[in-house]
Write a structure and sequence with these properties.
With 236 residues, the protein is an alpha/beta fold. The protein has one domain: 3-Layer(aba) Sandwich (Uracil-DNA Glycosylase, subunit E). The chain has eight helices and six strands. Strands 1-3-2-4-6-5 form a six-stranded mixed beta sheet, with helices on both faces. Strand 5 and strand 6 form a beta hairpin. Helix 4 packs across helix 8. The longest helix has 17 residues. The radius of gyration is 17 Å and the shape is globular. The two termini are 19 Å apart.
């Protein structure tokens, strides 16, 4: 069963990587991959949509906003090769979800345990701001992904955009007849939303804007990840 799930996730990753649904995002990600940043001028950029990655048997799903133009859009792996990823993977290592504290390249030996990392939007957007239409175009990929990640019980939302994306994802998974939550649950660091199958946890995004200013600290992100693990244990 585990090998079959891994194979299905690999097939989905190949489909995601070929997606060209959003003309604006296609043009931007490919422009960035051609022009490159001076520090990475000698590197071949990925320049395509990013599939999720991690443990196929994960009980925790980490949902981000979108790939960084010179991070994941360059390396081909979510949160890999940028400052946000540096902060995130160090936290995953401290809390036992990763075998090493760094993630610099797709072949650097990183292995995740009990966690899967993905994003609400799979392509790097201009100014890191995808449009609502682009978000909605990506939603079917997330629905398929969650359908294969059958052990997931907790979704950690990295930022308000991811929180909104997770709410839309759970609504899509529940089907058109499912009741809509009113009032709409609000994002906040440490916000918690329990559900019959999935629980949502809010965490400030590990962007430099948050980590350099102290809005998000190591104990804060560690606390959310540790809470996610406890919730998966309670769900057994």
């Amino acid at each position: 069963m585990q090998s079959q799930r891994a194979e299905q996730l690999s097939e989905l990753a190949a489909q995601v990587s070929d997606c060209r649904r959003c003309p604006r995002l296609v043009a931007w990600r490919e422009q960035v991959a051609c022009e490159r940043r001076a520090a990475f001028a000698d590197q071949q950029y990925w320049g395509r949509p990013l599939p999720g990655f991690g443990d196929p048997a994960a009980r925790v799903l980490l949902l981000g906003l979108a790939p960084a133009a010179h991070g994941a859009n360059r390396t081909g792996r979510m949160f890999t090769g940028d400052r946000s990823g540096d902060f995130l993977f160090a936290a995953l290592w401290r809390t036992g979800f990763a075998n090493q504290p760094t993630s610099q390249a797709s072949d650097d030996g990183l292995a995740l345990s009990d966690v899967w990392i993905t994003a609400a939007v799979r392509c790097a957007p201009p100014a890191n701001r995808p449009t609502p239409a682009e978000r909605d175009q990506c939603l079917p990929w997330s629905v398929q992904e969650m359908g294969l990640l059958s052990e997931v019980r907790v979704v950690v939302c990295l930022g308000a955009f991811a929180w909104d994306g997770a709410l839309r994802l759970l609504t899509a998974l529940a089907g058109p007849q499912a009741p809509v939550r009113r009032p709409r649950p609000r994002f906040g660091h440490g916000a918690e939303l329990a559900g019959e199958r999935y629980s949502l946890l809010g965490c400030y995004h590990p962007s430099q804007q948050n980590t350099f200013t102290g809005k998000l600290t190591e104990p804060m992100i560690d606390g959310v990840l540790e809470r996610a693990r406890r919730l998966t244990q309670d769900a057994r």
